[in-house]
Amino acid sequence: MTIDTLSKIVQISFYIVVGTTVVLTYISAKKGLLNTVNTEYQKKVINRLEEISRMLGSEFDSQSANYWPNVNPIKEIVSNANSTFSNNKDYIKEIGEYPFGRIITTEEKRIMDILDEIESDPFIPNNIRQLTKSLLSKRIEAIFEIYQKWSDIYIEKLQRGDRPFSTDGDDHTYDQFHNKIVDIKRERGCGISQIEKDMHEIRISIQQHFESFNPLK
After folding, report:
1. What is the spatial distance between Cα 190 and Cα 180, in angstroms, rounded to a whole number?
2. Which long-range contacts (CB under 8 A, 24 or more apart) does 74-77 make?
């Protein structure tokens, strides 16, 4: 074997070693980058799911503004109808109808805001998104129909000249009206205990998602 041939073999071996090292370095760097990206993504998923869990649970948190005893959508509807009817009584009488519709309650707005938020949020796993959408959509559809129907009934009473309800806790007729709507909400799966059950179902789904990443399981 000549020195020239030996030199070429050494050069070829060198290039092979360098080339292999470059490829392995690239693969290692790529894996490291992907792991970093995946870790950051999972952090955002965890933070977002924590927000969703707290958001849904706030209806049953006595320290929250959303705590269910502090939110009274039926009172909102009646009070708004009373005010609107009183301020526009002559106009309503002149045209022979009530053209103002009804208020969108705090309860409805909150649910619609949550649904809007989670619709395309990339940090919410699809199974949790679909479960949350299903349960909240069922609720919003039911309460929208109920509130619309009973708002129309109440407004018809006002147009007939019936006395407006008082929402100050001293009107038995209002209490009956209120309790009737609460009973119908319960029949449609939107009672407080049923809403709490749905909330727990979603939060358990979130917990199961976290547990699926537990390396000890």
Report:
1. 13
2. 74/147, 74/150, 74/177, 74/178, 74/181, 74/182, 75/167, 75/178, 76/103, 76/105, 76/106, 77/102, 77/103, 77/105, 77/147, 77/150, 77/151, 77/154
Burial of 58 (0-12, 13-18, 19+ CB in 10 A): middle
Q: Taking a C-beta distance cutoff of 8 angstroms, is the pair 211, 217 a contact? A: yes
Measured distance CA(108)–CA(99) in Å, rounded: 21
Tens of pLDDT, residue by residue over 67-123, are: 999 999 999 999 999 999 999 999 998 998 999 999 999 999 999 999 999 999 999
Q: From CA 191, how far away is CA 183, in angstroms rounded? A: 8
Distant-in-sequence, close-in-space partners of 52: CB < 8 Å, separation ≥ 6: 118, 124, 128, 132, 202, 206
Prediction pTM value: 0.80
Residues 2-26: tens digit of each pLDDT: 555 544 444 444 345 434 444 444 4
